[in-house]
Amino acid sequence: MKTLNKVFTIVMMVTVLFACGSKDHHDNANQAAEERADDSKKAADEANDDKFQTNKAEEDADFISNAVASNIAEIEIAQIGVQRSNSAEVKEIGRMLETDHNKLLKDLQSFAAKKSISVPTAGDDTDRKKIEDLNKEELKDFNKDWCEALVDKHEKSIEKFETRLQKTEDPDLKTFINSALPHLRSHLEKVKACHDKIAQAGK
Fold this sequence. Notes:
Shape: elongated
Distance between the termini: 57 Å
Number of helices: 6
Helix content: over 70%
Radius of gyration: 22 Å
Largest sheet: none
Order of helices and strands: HHHHHH
CATH class: Mainly Alpha
CATH superfamily: Ferritin, core subunit, four-helix bundle
Structural class: mainly alpha
Strand content: under 5%
CATH architecture: Up-down Bundle
């Protein structure tokens, strides 16, 4: 009996140690991802500061850099919707957003290369936190919170695109923004409609 108790105690200790180790590993992985994202954005911003000598050119570069980071995050959020949602509509919108934002990301990266603009390879810290929260979200609240996150992202993106359109003196950037805005507005309408339907169903 004593032997069995000893074995049980050892098994429990190993289980607890493994659980703690798994949590530490998960936390360390999240911290490392956040640090890589922060380093990537910081490096891109510093490189652009060194490259561009006028405020206008530097502001255009910052816009492209921020738009790349935002698109990377929106692709990840879209993927989470496809993976976690129990709603066919959310999954469908998620797949559409993933496809469209992958295309926009490639277009942004091509534009950046053409203009010698440095861009990050990950989303910013705020987006990383939102992605982490959505991955942990309880399923009963997930669809509503997912839609709200994307409504917020698209509203902010549209505002930034419209502001840059008014301020930039680069005709190529004006053309690029004008081609992207209709897609962003369409995304916002679809995500808002989905959110309203979910909210109505929850009443």
